[in-house]
Amino acid sequence: MNRTLNVVRLQLINRQTFLWLPLIILFGALGLSLLVYGIIAAAGVDGVKISGGAQAPLWYFGVVGAQALTRTFPFSQAMSVTRREFFTGTLLTAGITAVVLSTISVIGGLVEQATGGYGMNGYFFYMPWLWEAGPVAAGVTSFAVAMFFFVIGFWAATIFKRFGTLVLTVTLVDVGLLLVAIIALVTLTRSWPAVLEGAAALGAFGMALWGLVLIAALASSSFLTLRRATP
Predict the structure, then answer these.
(1) What burial class does residue 22 get, using C-beta atoms within 10 Å of its C-beta: 0-12 exposed, 13-18 middle, 19+ buried?
(2) Nearest 5°: CA angle at 69, between 63 and 74?
(3) How far apart are CA 182 and CA 195, in angstroms?
(4) What pLDDT shows up at residue 77?
(5) Cβ pair 138, 49 in contact under 8 A
(6) How far is CA 20 from CA 15, 133, 177, in A?
(7) Which helix (H) or strand (E) holds 100?
(8) Distance of CA 135 to CAs 102, 103, 110, 123, 125, Å?
(9) At what angle do helices 83-115 and 21-42 cross, to 10 degrees?
(10) Element (H, E) at 122
(11) Of 17, 30, 44, 219, which shows the fewest CB atoms inside 10 Å?
(12) Cβ burial, residue 99 (10 Å; 0-12/13-18/19+)
């Protein structure tokens, strides 16, 4: 456990990657959204205004997942840290950041509900479909989405470290083709109503729970690939 925590400390040596940049992106997007809300309100528009800016740091989290491997994995191996310890400590670090982001999102959503969208009917953290099961469910969903992006980046980086750029590129193209094939199958069988009804029945919280299963599968795949990756 101590060696795993040492990996967490290793990842947090540069707090900019895991902490400051996600927070700057998040609050920067919030500030820009508030400016837009103010401009719209000043123009006399009183309708509900919802921004998607809260997802901004999540895209960056995919980059963090890749950097967490490519930047620190060689150094960790020089320190005689096992690959299992590196993997566990890195995911724990990502989990800490995801908890921070999801906690901020829940607090922000509660503030927005209490203030009527900052008095401008504008919402950044609070999304009705995301909060339909309550603030705890919204926090779990936010955590799951952040970890999903991180694991995607980490998974891609393990393939790069193990097989190189060519195999990574071919893999990403194959994943894209698989997604297109699934969309085509659903479209040609006219199954979109059933798919949308199923998604609505699950709700954001239900989909987040299934997302955690997918995250576990991708993480397991990443670990198996990492075991044979060169530093």
Answers:
(1) buried
(2) 145
(3) 12
(4) 78
(5) no
(6) 6, 30, 36
(7) helix 83-115
(8) 10, 10, 8, 15, 11
(9) 20
(10) strand 122-123
(11) 44
(12) middle
Amino acid at 115: T
Type of residue at 231: P
Instruction: Give the whole-angstrom CA distance, residue 137 versus residue 54.
Output: 16
Distances, alpha carbon 106 to alpha carbons 51, 77, 98, 166, in Å: 15, 38, 12, 41
- Rounded to an integer, what distance in angstroms lies between the CA atom of residue 141 and that of residue 204? 7
Cα→Cα distances 222→152, 209, 214, 217, Å: 9, 20, 12, 9
Q: Model pTM greater than 0.90?
A: no
Cα(98)–Cα(61) distance, integer angstroms: 9
Both structure tokens of 187: 């479209």
Q: What is the mean pLDDT for each group of 10 consecutive residues in the chain (231 residues)?
A: 82 84 91 91 82 84 86 80 89 93 93 91 88 88 91 91 90 93 92 85 84 90 82 64
